[in-house]
Batch of 2 targets.
Target 1
Amino acid sequence: MQRGQGQLSETFYSTSCPKVESIVRQVVAQKIAQTFVTIPATLRLFFHDCFVEGCDASVIIASPNGNAEKDAPDNLSLAGDGFDTVIKAKAAVEQSCPRVVSCADILTIAARDVVALAGGPSFKVELGRRDGLISMASRVAGNLPEPNFNLAQLNAIFAKNNLNQTDMIALSGAHTLGFAHCTRFANRLYSFSPSSPVDPKLNSTYAQQLMQACPQNVDPQIAINMDPVTPRTFDNSYFKNLVNKMGLFTSDEMLFTNKASQATVVDFANNPGNFNGAFIAAMRKLGRVGVKTGTAGQIRVDCTAFNS
């Protein structure tokens, strides 16, 4: 059991802030109406938060010295719209229930909401996390999966967070949404190996499309949809794409080409209900990682700063 995990509860705020989930949902919906990026940005922010120091909103802290968790190289590509969603939701919640609901819980609720609002499954979230007191850029390296990881490396980094291979594959399905910068997969198009510049595991038509979108030496700001089929819908297309050799990262495609994970990918590609069920289970488990409860941590007033 992770420390304090047993003290999370779906009804944690039922008397202290009974409307918290509807308040957050309203802010999230408004933010999505302004920009679609809200959806992948918020979901990814939750994942990055939980994998470093646990689900404690440590990733949202801003440092004047540029040395907070969010300033680490692996976190620089986290889109501002995810942070903004949590900050706006926190402000709305503070008006109803000041100093009651943690930023960590607001991020957890918002991550659940963006999945549902993108057409994915709805599910209940456990609440009662408190906000962390540590946020350091130096503590990020080695704690987040990289796009070139193999199955053993992915399984190891997820296992460290109490997540098994099925959870890892289900959470990878979040790549049905959002964008990736060309630099993160250019090696598969231009420099895969001396004998084959293009990764032979990449669908050749898809490789041509990627080369058009991401020419060599392209502006590093350029990003493309991770799911070229239904980029704005939370569905199981990611797994269908993998079967069709259209996984964008090596760490995506490998889930299909490695025999040890292939059966799960094929199952999720063929059975959206199985994927949704596994995704919900994995999100709930992810939300328990390294949580602070009881008197640990604090309830931040401003999500971007520790209480003074």
Note: Residues 1-5 have pLDDT under 50 and may be disordered.
Target 2
Amino acid sequence: MNLKKKPGLDLSGSFISLLWRWRGSLYKLCYKELICFLVPFGIVSIIYRQALDVEQKSLFEQVVRYCDRYLNMIPLSFILGFYVTIIATRWWQQCMALPWPDRLMLTIAMYIPGCDNESKLLRKTLMQNCNLMAVLVFRSISESVRSRLKSLEDVVNAGFMTYAEMETYKAVQSDVNLYWLPGLWFSHRLREAQARGRIIDSYGAQLIMKELLEFRSKCGILWSYDWVSIPLVYTQVVTLSTYSFVIACIFGRQCIDNGSKDISIDAYFPLWTVLQILFYMGLLKVAEHMINPYGEDDEDFDLSYLLNRHSKVINLGTSILTSDRCPPMEDACLQIAAGTGIQTPKTAERISLKNRFAQRLTEL
């Protein structure tokens, strides 16, 4: 499967190619705010140069000095840095909490063997119940998944739930999130399988339940992150500080006639101010996009792909790639590898270069 890489992951290109990207880039996030800064900045600059008399220019220059003097009193770099650190840590923890059914599937394949239809159906049903917990949680927290699976009927049509399971789910009258209910079905079916002797030993049932509880705990962590967000007042402080800085720069960074003697250039375009605003505004926009990674932004988690991937892996691991499809063990390849070593293309190239270098030395 050929997946398109997201921007920022492949840094093997040149510096220019990195800056040329648009999807998920700094320019895409900040170009509106940058335009809203440059247009008033240019209008104020033109008014100062063309429309004001000497007395009005003197008053305007006092305003510019006042704004420039108190512009750095806001510890914006500290506020933004601390805020982005919190958001990035939270974002990574949510990434690591994404549930993966692979370990549970491998454990079930170990302790519930068999290539008959009943064994395959049992393994697949257990794994589908496990995956259904992730589907229900993703519907609760992700806009993209909710737009795809708007109702339980859509979940049934997508193959994540059976019609009987949907009726049982709807029959439960409760005002709490019931994403854990398929895990309860899993436990009942596992106990019945153990009573019928479908599980090799009781320790295997314990390991299977342990992996199920780990999967359920990750679903609970994702739901908790969606339930408890960053305090609104902190987000307001950071946003207000950043936009106040940008507004103050409209006046404080104007090039006036009686300005600093160290800078004699009449800068019509505030290059370094633009870069500073891009960096500050970029950090703010990064935090705004990372605070909810379940949306439809460029860098958000693709939970729809994750659900499709889990369904395909479950189907392969429980019904298709069973023990009768396991390749036979062969000793010939191991003996060859033990005698000559594994020859990767890179290793072979190095050996060839080494031999050519030794031959040159011998000729000398």
Note: Residues 1-9 have pLDDT under 50 and may be disordered.
